[in-house]
């Protein structure tokens, strides 16, 4: 680790900075929603372009199909993500109600659960009993502890509308990129497809770099992995379109 990075970490871990950071409410993670929407949007529109090019369709068909699917699939993705996150939210709410009921009906049993949770973490004797007393003295902390330790749930309540919105925005913004070359009238269809392929590849690689940067993993590996996954999906679309064209003749 270089010296500047070490000094930065030392500043971040000063008592005042730690207290300030821990006092801030946790923020919901939106990166996964945006990555989901962005990758799916780019794959959707570029797969249409690749399939249409392989089947011998015209650029106009690519634009019509691409734009129609961009909006329809964007809405579908947003609705699907909304339903998934909403189901997760209901699960968290049900788990919270369950723990509230258990604490009300069998408080000693719930105290024993807390005791065993922290015993598994290595605490014992008087220290363990002090932790149990502290946790169970605050009902909100008690419930949050059970949700985190027993169910593995985050304290941050998921927001279905926000997740759906960011998925839709990323889907539309990123998904339109592979269609842009087909709006340029001066290019031949083959040239438009080549430029679209380059743009799609750059988008896949950039999304991978973003994931690698956020999660502090290998940037090159993250970029190449996302690039290859997106490229494979587009290649399948191209092959299917080409095979259909070969099987049934000129479908333009």
UniProtKB/TrEMBL annotation:
The keyword Transmembrane helix appears for this protein: yes
Main location: membrane
Subcellular location per the Swiss-Prot or TrEMBL entry: Endomembrane system
Pfam families: VIT1 (PF01988)
Keyword flag Transmembrane: yes
Membrane disposition: Multi-pass membrane protein
Keywords per UniProt: Membrane, Transmembrane, Transmembrane helix
TM spans (from-to): 34-54, 60-80, 164-183, 189-210, 222-244
Name of the protein in question: VIT1/CCC1 transporter family protein
UniProt source species: Microbulbifer salipaludis
């Amino acid at each position: 680790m270089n010296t500047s990075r070490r000094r930065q970490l030392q500043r971040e871990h000063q008592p005042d900075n730690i207290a300030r950071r821990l006092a801030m409410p946790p923020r919901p993670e939106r990166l996964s929603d945006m990555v989901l929407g962005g990758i799916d949007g780019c794959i959707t529109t570029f797969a249409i372009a690749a399939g249409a090019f392989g089947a011998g369709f015209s650029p106009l068909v690519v634009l019509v199909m691409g734009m129609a699917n961009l909006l329809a699939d964007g809405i579908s993705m947003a609705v699907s993500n909304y339903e998934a996150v909403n189901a997760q939210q209901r699960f968290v709410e049900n788990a919270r109600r369950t723990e509230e009921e258990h604490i009300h009906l069998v408080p000693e049993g719930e105290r024993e659960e807390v005791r065993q949770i922290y015993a598994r973490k290595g605490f014992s004797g008087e220290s363990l009993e002090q932790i149990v007393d502290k946790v169970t003295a605050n009902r909100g902390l008690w419930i949050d502890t059970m949700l985190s330790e027993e169910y593995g749930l985050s304290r941050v309540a998921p927001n279905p509308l926000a997740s759906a919105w960011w998925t839709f925005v990323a889907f539309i913004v990123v998904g339109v990129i592979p269609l842009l070359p087909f709006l340029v009238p001066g290019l031949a269809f083959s040239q438009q497809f080549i430029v679209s392929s380059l743009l799609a590849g750059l988008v896949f690689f950039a999304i991978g770099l973003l994931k690698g940067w956020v999660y502090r993993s290998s940037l090159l590996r993250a970029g190449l992995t996302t690039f290859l996954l997106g490229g494979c999906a587009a290649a399948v679309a191209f092959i299917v379109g080409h095979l259909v064209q070969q099987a049934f003749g000129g479908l333009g």
